[in-house]
Amino acid sequence: MMRSFHAIACERETLAATLDTGDRQTALLIVSGGNEIRSGAHGGMAQLASRIAEQGFTVLRYDRRGIGESSGQNSGFLGSAEDIAAAVRFLKEEQSAQNIVAFGNCDAATALALFGPDAGIDGYILANPWVIETSSAPDTQEPTISSAAIRSRYWDRIKNPRTVLDLLSGKIDFGKLIKGLKQASRSEENSALSLRLRDALAGLDQETNILLAKRDTTARAFLSAWNSADFEPIRKKASITVDNLDSASHSFADIPARNWLTGKILESLRQA
Fold first, then answer.
1. Strands of 2-10's sheet, edge to edge?
2. Which residues, including other chains, have CB under 8 Å from residue 24's CB and lie 6 or more apart?
3. What residues contact residue 117 under an 8 Å CB cut-off, 6+ apart?
4. Do the beta carbons of residue 85 and residue 107 sit within 8 Å?
5. In whole angstroms, what is the distance from residue 132 CA to residue 147 CA?
6. What is the per-residue pLDDT across 96-112, written as a single tens digit (0 to 9) for each?
7. pLDDT (tens digit, 9 = 90+) per residue, 71-95?
8. How many angstroms separate the Cα of 84 from the Cα of each of 3, 112, 125, 161, 271?
9. What gap in Å lies between CA 266 and CA 52, rounded to an integer?
10. Domains of the chain and CATH, by start
C-alpha cells in the first residue's frame, strides 16, 4: 500500500485528496459527512482507508470544497454534486479504476444517493442516511428529531430496569420525561428531504447497502421514514439491502462497530 496526496480540479476550485493505492480494479470512494475533513473524526476515515487498502483496494477520500485544505466555498452536502463527480473522474481517468463503490455516513450517504448516479458510481454503501430537515449542516444546527426516533429512544429507556430506579431516586426529571413522551406521540409526515432521498433510491439500479447503527438518532430518523408507507416500493427493491448494528455509535467509532463496518465495506467491494 502506498499513500499519496493529490489536488483534484473541481470546477474552478481544488479538492485536497488522499489516495491509498491497491492492485485491484475496484476502488472505494469515501465521502465525508457533515463538515468533517477527509481524515474523519479522530482519524477514523484515514484508518478505515488503510484497512481497506491493505486488502488490495484503492481508496480515495477528499475534503469537500470549502472544507479543510480544499479551496472554494462550503455549500453543504446538497451542493456537493460536482465534488463527487470530480472525485469519480479522478479515480477513473487518473487511476484507471474499473468499478467504483462509494461509502458515506450521515449527510454524505444522502449526497451519494442524490448525486452518485450522474457521477457514474457503480455501488453504494450508505450509512445512517440523513433525512432531517435543517437550514444548515447536521453538525452546525440542532435538528428537529422525528417523533418515531424519539419514541424508539424512550422505549429503550423504559425497557431498562434502571430507569425506574432513576425515576424513584430523582436522577431522571419526571417533568422532562412527560414532555418527551408528549413530543413522541405527535403524528408527522416524512420530511421533504426524506422524500427526495426516497426518489433517489428508487432510481438506483446499482447494488446499494444501507448500514444503520440502530440506536443512533440519525439512523432512527431514517428508519422512521424507511418503514413508512412512502418508502414501501423502495423496500421491495432487490438491489437495496439494509443491515443493522446494535450500536449507538453514529461514526462506528468503537472497536466492534469499526470491525463490523470494515467487514461490510469489504463485502461490497468484493462483490462489485
1. 2-10, 13-21, 58-62, 26-31, 99-105, 123-127, 208-213, 240-245
2. 56, 57, 58, 269
3. 200, 203, 204
4. no
5. 12
6. 999 999 999 999 999 99
7. 999 999 999 999 999 999 999 999 9
8. 20, 8, 14, 47, 22
9. 7
10. 2-143+189-271 (3.40.50.1820), 147-187 (no CATH)
